[in-house]
Design a protein that fits this description.
alpha+beta, 12 strands
């Protein structure tokens, strides 16, 4: 077994494994990760081709580990641990002081052994709207969404926000922003940040007007977001732990109403 960089040629094998696991993964997202933080996106190759993967993205002072995946027939051989260790080391060598990830209940004790601690839970919400959709709204001018996003996560995530905006549309103003990204026959909401609940409510109503299925991941400690989602008919369908290692982040979930991705890049 040999661990090398995750290359564009590894994307198809990854997507095949991800589909077997029932993951929601996108070729466009993987291409972004390979371009943004190539040194920390890794693949483990055996005689028959790649058998395991991990991706990571670096922001300014923080990074995110995601897409840790090993084929079922190759589990229990230490491949996932080796990939995780090397990706984390690459982020730290690049100057990252805080590393984020999400973990299932079963995965939490494993990551705790690597020094990760839980700081919140991320809850997934779904809304089943009418199949007839209106056109997604176009970006509005004058948004300060980069600054608002930084208030929530305690870091500058300029490249990630630019990637999300380029692949969808933005509703926003001086008090908040919401991005809609295409997801199958509907949309993923996120990233979604606001200075207050009133602004977030207005943005959510505009997103609902696009029609169709909507999915988003939200910090469980943002109680305002939870009340709004329940009021508008969203259903909670899953939950994972939000964990970090390294320097404690300036994390303010009251400004985070939706993550930028479904589990893989924060």
């Amino acid at each position: 077994m040999q661990i090398t960089r995750f290359t564009p040629g590894d994307i198809d094998p990854f997507l095949a494994l991800a589909q077997e696991e029932g993951w929601i993964s996108h070729r466009r997202e993987l291409a972004f990760l390979l371009e943004c933080t190539p040194e920390a996106c890794l693949a483990c190759h055996g005689e028959g081709g790649p058998v395991g993967f991990v991706t990571a993205v670096r922001h300014d002072r923080s990074g995110w580990i995601g897409n840790l995946l090993v084929g079922e027939t190759n589990r229990g051989r230490g491949i996932g641990t080796a990939l995780f260790r090397q990706a984390t080391e690459k982020l730290e060598l690049s100057g990252v002081t805080t590393v984020w990830l999400t973990a299932s209940p079963a995965g939490r004790p494993i990551y705790e052994r690597f020094g990760f601690r839980s700081c919140d839970r991320i809850r997934r919400w779904e809304y089943s709207g009418s199949a007839a959709e209106q056109a997604a709204p176009r970006p509005e001018t004058g948004s300060v969404w980069q600054e608002i996003d930084s208030l929530g996560w305690g870091d500058t995530r300029k490249e990630l926000l630019a990637y999300a905006a380029a692949g969808g549309s933005v509703i926003g103003g001086e008090q908040g922003f919401l991005m809609l990204q295409r997801l199958g026959n509907g949309h993923q909401i996120g990233p979604f940040g606001a200075l207050n609940g009133e602004t977030a409510e207005g943005l959510l109503v505009k997103a609902l007007a696009t029609g169709g299925r909507l999915v988003l991941d939200v910090p469980a400690s943002n109680r305002i977001a939870e009340r709004q989602l329940v009021t508008h008919g969203f259903k909670a369908v899953g939950e994972v732990e939000l964990m970090y290692a390294g320097q404690p982040p300036e994390y303010h979930p009251e400004h985070i109403f939706g993550l930028a991705s479904l589990g893989s890049i924060g």
